Amino acid sequence: MGTLYGDVTGTGGELILRKERQGGKLKILALDSSGLVASVALAEDDNLIAEYTVQYKKTHSQTLLPMLQEIVRMVELDLSTVDAIAVAAGPGSFTGLRIGSATAKGLAFALEKPIVPVPTVDGLAYQMYGAKDLVCPIMDARRNQVYTGIYEFVPDQTGRFVYDMRVIREQCAVSFDEAAEALNKLDRSVIFLGDGVPVFRERMEQLMRVPYTAAPLHRARQSAAAIAALGQLYYEQGRAVDGAAFVPEYLRLSQAERERKEKERGEPL
Questions:
Q1: Residue 123 to residue 111: CA distance in whole angstroms
Q2: 134 beta partners
Q3: Quick one: angle between helices 94-111 and 60-74, nearest 10?
């Protein structure tokens, strides 16, 4: 299993766990139930061993664990050999994030493994690895808002055709109009992806003043493979946390919480 030690403290005082690896391979189990898609993946270093992704009529509570169990069966995975659990940490569907969080925390507790939180919007953007244009994921956040961010991929300094993902604007919850204005100011071509693309396509046509396109269907939604890939990077950077310390990042109040506050104040938030 290697030696786990906590010598780095992150924001909020959570314990950051690192693994001393002595020539061994890094094996990451990844989960994403932050949106319409349910996805599970297993990666070992540069090898994507398995990915199971479904976007259909069933709820994540019906699909996520059976998908995980099927991957375990198909690749004869001994879960104790996994180094960490990477999970799409939000924003996204409140119910979906809670299901993903509960599953990740349960695995982390049972296996005594750390969790690697991967921001959902970062994970979406990473699917456009190496893109020359700006990358702008947009998730439908309801109430005329989107969960979004702005990213670019820049070559690293090694000359090995390796790219670093640079965050121009961190994930946030804003109106699509605000996101479009920020992109127009950057005056560069844009690739959009995420479940907000069909929802806000008409507004794109009205507001965008720079060239833009939408990602193809095989890159248009969440993927646990992208969460696994970023999870590996973040794990090596010491950004894993103890399972008990992990909480999703919602960015907004839930609908039930908003309605309660609106009722208390007697006016919309």
A1: 24
A2: 190
A3: 40
Tokens 């989960």: give the residue: 31
Rounded mean pLDDT of 88-100? 96
| 196-249: pLDDT as tens digits | 999 999 999 999 999 999 999 999 999 999 999 999 999 999 999 999 999 999
Alpha carbons 250 and 266: distance in angstroms, whole number: 24
Coil/strand/helix, residue 75: coil
Q: Token pair of 46, please? A: 């540069």
- pLDDT given at position 4: 30
Rg (CA), the chain: 19
Q: Where are the beta strands (DSSP E) in the chain?
A: 4-9, 15-19, 27-32, 38-44, 47-54, 84-88, 115-118, 134-142, 145-155, 163-175, 190-193, 212-214, 240-241
Measured distance CA(266)–CA(269) in Å, rounded: 9
d(CA 3, CA 47): 24
Q: What residues contact 1, with CB distance under 8 A and at least 6 apart?
A: 80, 112
Q: Which two tokens stand for residue 225?
A: 């493979």
Query: What is the distance between the alpha carbons of residues 132 and 172, in angstroms, rounded to a whole number?
Result: 23
In this structure, what DSSP letter does residue 237 have? T
Alpha-carbon distance of 161 to 269, in angstroms, equals 47
CA atoms within 13 Å, Cβ hemisphere of 36: 12
Proportion of the chain above pLDDT 70, given as a percent: 84
